[in-house]
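Researcher: Next entry in the queue.
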Amino acid sequence: MIRGAFFDIDGTLLPETEPRVPQSTKEAILRLKEQGILVFAATGRHLLEINDLPLSDIPFDGYVLLNGQLCLDGSHQVLYDNEIKGSDKEEMLQIFRRKDLPVMIIEKDRMYINTVNEMVEKAQFEIHTPVPEVEEYKGEKIYQFVVYANGEVIGSLKEKLPHCKITYWNSNAVDVIAKDGGKMNGICQMLRYYHLTSEEIIAFGDGENDRDMLSYAGIGVAMGNAGHSLKQIADYVTGSADKDGIRDALRHFGLL
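Model: Structure for this entry, 256 residues:
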């Protein structure tokens, strides 16, 4: 019996073509809520970004943010956090301060960058989000770094960060989080708090950072716009977000 549903945002709730939640998705999620099924966001984004997106019609019961690094309940109270520490943090802070690469730092209440170039502007434009302000690090907990680069640069960076994992979310940008992080880890914390098991949840995603989440959930659904490798590990492949994919998958599993 499904008692919880976890949704990635970009490319899942929000179509790649435009930043709006399809009406069929809104109606489907409200029907889940009417049945007593809890609804969660599971995203690489920060709450500050979510608040600027057209998601106010989605009554989330909780949030798995920053790829599992920060988990909030429906009232935005922190349930779990997993900061980046040690030598990896110091390595990234050196890069940030030297401005070797554009690097965004993400804390609980702040998101800011060290320098801006065309790669940053392009990546942020593609996710319909403004370029962050240029600011300095002041000693707060860091939950995620975003590095705007690709290819050999990212390969070299991985060698310098043995205690972190790096995941592309754009062809020119990666998320850097603690090695024991990830959406699955964040979801585990949420299930513990809400007294659910993995077999009682369905999860939807389209990106590589959704892989562990889809594998962990009782039902893992890949969107039609997902890559081939993600579709291979999913329990079901549905249509893309702008083709009523979420509604159709929920119908397929008898949840609507």
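Model: Residues 42 and 64 are 5 Å apart (CA to CA).
Researcher: Noted, moving on.
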